Amino acid sequence: MTSPDGERAIATVDLTALRHNLGVVKRLAGESRVLAVVKADGYGHGLEQVAPALAATDGFAVATLREALAIRRLGLAHRVVLLEGVLSPAQLSAARQHRIDVVVHHAEQVALLQAAERQGAQINVWLKFDTGMHRLGFPPADVPALLDALADMPHVASPPRLMSHLASADVPGNAHTQSQIERFRKTVATHPGERSLANSAGLIAWPETREDWVRVGLLLYGVSPIAGQTAGELDLRPAMRFTTRLLAVNDCAAGEPVGYGGAFRAPETMAVGVAAVGYGDGYPRAATAATPVMVAGRECALAGRVSMDMIGIDLRGYPDARVGDEVVLWGAELPVERLVDSIQAIPWEMLCGVTRRVEFRYVGD
Ligand SMILES: *Cc1c(COP(=O)(O)O)cnc(C)c1O
């Protein structure tokens, strides 16, 4: 069936690629278990399709209670970790009722646990401490007293898990990461519970951070977190292919401006394409004229500013382009990692920025 918008911007998500990537991540994780991070609507790929496709994971991690409950509504009984924890008694009781693990990173959250019903299902807690990112987490020196306080709560499952987050794991050899790892080791040394430290970059560049649970997002979607490395080198496959079509092919005289503000001027008489995607679809407005796009399999570059519904394309790389030709914005042939410099966005932001105006198609199983 053709969609009402015809063939405008389309995000094609390959569920087989997601499964394949989980297999790669599991091999890299070795003995460690995997929390598949599916926050922000499965990094923009669609939580409802992504989570079931990743059912072979050991657990899921999300940022919000709404996301956690969405996983339960899909009928998935996995461990689900709420990475930011809860902010109110009502959230805590909903998490408890649906067996959602909560991260506890602040004294307010300890107070919420203290105030909760003693009776009823035990709550799984991941106590988060700060090894140097200075975003969420208790000072390491507070951890022993917090563990004592949690041990006195019969409704908190014992022992709690301990976790921390790396700020710069994407920079191999980074001294700050080294010091975060040392602080982590020191803090967890005598603790009998399970531990978690690594994100995608930790898993790849710092295998010593795998601990009991790795928390992996980006790699599952087939993208490398390490600058200068593409996922293909890790045997990962991009799960999303973001495409659209050419709406117009125009002849542009030398010196004429293209698009808002005349930011691009044709250096010579040339063909300029207009494709049906813009920042209203999540194609970043910050993308510069050097940003590559593929037109019918040929590499071209943007011309002029990204508008809400359209982009201009310098067709000197493919002057034979025709209205209706497919334009690939990113995908296997144009990995998002390659766009980082010219788009001035990180892959995480590009993927979860694709808006709901875009038609999502799911392939594979
Ligand atoms: C988002 C997130 C992750 C996953 O990060 P990736 O770089 O996508 O693997 C892991 N841990 C925490 C605490 C997060 O917020």
Describe this structure in words.
The chain is of the alpha/beta class and 365 residues long. Helix content is 26%, strand content 22%. The chain is built from eleven helices and 18 strands. The strands form three sheets. It has an eight-stranded parallel sheet. The longest helix has 15 residues. It is elongated, with a radius of gyration of 23 Å. It starts with 9 loop residues before the first strand and ends with a strand. The model has no long low-confidence stretch (mean pLDDT 95). Pyridoxal-5'-phosphate (PLP) binds next to helix 9 and strand 9.
Shape: elongated
Strand percentage, roughly? 15-25%
Could you spell the SSE succession in H and E letters? EHEHHEHEHEHEHEHEHEEEEEEEEEHHE
Mind describing the biggest β-sheet?
8 strands, parallel
Low-pLDDT segments, ≥5 res: none
> In DSSP terms, counting alpha (H) and pi (I) runs of 4 or more, how many helices?
11
Which structural class is indicated by helix and strand composition?
A: alpha/beta
Strand order in space, largest sheet:
8-7-6-5-4-3-2-9
Ligands present = pyridoxal-5'-phosphate
